[in-house]
Design brief:
The protein has 219 residues and is of the alpha/beta class. The chain is 24% helix and 25% strand.
Length: 219
C-alpha cells in the first residue's frame, strides 16, 4: 500500500519516533511518504495525520482513500488541543487514544480503534510523551495490519472540547502547595513552557526533574 504520514508541527515530540515507524511500515512491504507540509501530500491508500496543526480541506483529504488521526482522548469526549494534558490536570491517570477518520470537522470522524495507556502518577512530561508516542505508533501499525477487519463506528454522545493551552497556563499559584499543583508540574515542559511564578514584580522559572525513588515522609 501507499502510505502518507504528515507531521507538520516542527517541535512535536513525535519527530523522535516517526522514523522508526516508517521503517516498520517499509519492513511490512508498504511504500511510505513522510512530509512536513500538507501541500506535499501525495495520492495513496492511507494518510496518517500525526501532531498536525493544519486542518485539511477536502482537496487534500481526497488524495487518499483513508485519512487517519490519533487523538489522545476518549472521543467524543475531549476534542480539541492538549487533551492528554488536560486529563492529567483533572487527576486522570488512565488516558485513551482514539484512531478515527479525519474530515473537515475537528475530531468528529468515524472511530476505528480506541485504546488506553495508564500512568502511575509520578511520570513527568518526557515519560508521559514517551508512553503516548509508543501507543500512537502502535495504533498506526495496528490499523495498517488489520484495517480490512475494522468497522468504523460513529461517535456517540455529547462531545466536550478543550481549548489550546498556552505558556501562561504553566503559572504556579503561590498560595497553593506543591502537592496541590503536582499534576501541573508533571505536564510542563522545562524548555518550551516551563513552570513559573510571579512575586514582587518579578517572574521566576521553575524546572522539575525526577530523581531516584525515595521514601515520602508525608505518606
Amino acid at each position: 500500500m501507499k502510505i502518507n504520514i504528515l507531521l507538520d508541527t516542527s517541535d512535536s515530540f513525535l519527530h523522535d519516533y516517526v522514523h522508526d515507524l516508517i521503517e516498520k511500515l517499509k519492513e511490512r512491504g508498504h511504500e511510505v511518504c513522510f512530509c512536513e507540509d500538507h501541500r506535499k501530500i501525495k495520492t495513496g491508500d492511507m494518510l496518517f495525520l500525526l501532531a498536525c496543526k493544519t486542518i485539511l480541506k477536502k482537496e487534500h483529504l481526497s488524495l487518499n482513500t483513508n485519512n487517519l488521526v490519533i487523538h489522545p482522548s476518549k472521543l467524543p469526549e475531549g476534542r480539541g488541543s492538549g487533551a492528554l494534558v488536560w486529563k492529567i490536570l483533572e487527576g486522570e491517570n488512565k488516558i485513551y487514544l482514539t484512531l478515527f477518520e479525519a474530515n473537515e470537522k475537528i475530531d468528529q470522524g468515524y472511530i476505528y480503534l480506541k485504546e488506553s495507556i495508564e500512568f502511575e502518577g509520578f511520570e513527568l512530561s518526557d515519560e508521559i510523551r514517551h508512553k503516548q508516542a509508543l501507543k500512537t505508533m502502535g495504533l498506526v501499525l495496528k490499523y495498517v495490519d488489520h484495517h480490512k477487519n475494522l468497522k468504523a463506528q460513529k461517535q456517540q454522545g455529547k462531545g466536550s472540547f478543550y481549548r489550546k493551552r498556552t505558556p501562561e497556563d504553566s503559572e504556579l499559584v503561590l498560595d497553593k502547595t506543591i502537592r496541590e499543583q503536582f499534576n501541573l508540574l508533571r505536564v510542563v515542559d522545562n524548555n518550551r513552557y516551563p513552570a513559573f511564578f510571579k512575586l514582587n514584580g518579578h517572574k521566576y522559572t521553575v524546572k522539575i526533574v525526577r530523581d531516584e525513588k525515595v521514601q515520602d515522609d508525608e505518606n
